[in-house]
Amino acid sequence: MSLRLLFIQYSATSLAKIIKVAARNAKILKVVTPHMLRHSFATHLLEAGTDLRTIQTLLGHNSLETTQMYTYAATSSLRDIKNPLDSL
């Protein structure tokens, strides 16, 4: 299989329909949109320690400032980080 076959382009409408059917099949009652999946993808990458430049490339953003929008969601997990000095 060539690498070109992995990058099939879908219209926004087709992609939304595919996601809607997949959510229904998974018995997800909440509305799921392509943007929600894109946002979740970026947020999870950021929380896993992926650098912003890599996320910028993966999302196809021209500007790093656009990618930085995703950092606000990831900062909520910072509250859960324990300071190792607190256990001394």
UniProtKB/TrEMBL annotation:
Annotated GO biological process: DNA integration; DNA recombination
A GO molecular-function descriptor: DNA binding
The protein's name: Phage integrase family protein
Top-rank lineage group of the source organism: Bacteria
InterPro entries in the cross-refs: DNA_brk_join_enz (IPR011010), Integrase-like_cat_sf (IPR013762), Integrase_catalytic (IPR002104), Tyrosine_recombinase_XerCD (IPR050090)
Domain Tyr recombinase: 1-83
A Pfam family the protein falls into: Phage_integrase
Keywords from the UniProt entry: DNA recombination, DNA-binding
PROSITE patterns, A to Z: TYR_RECOMBINASE
Protein family membership: Belongs to the 'phage' integrase family.
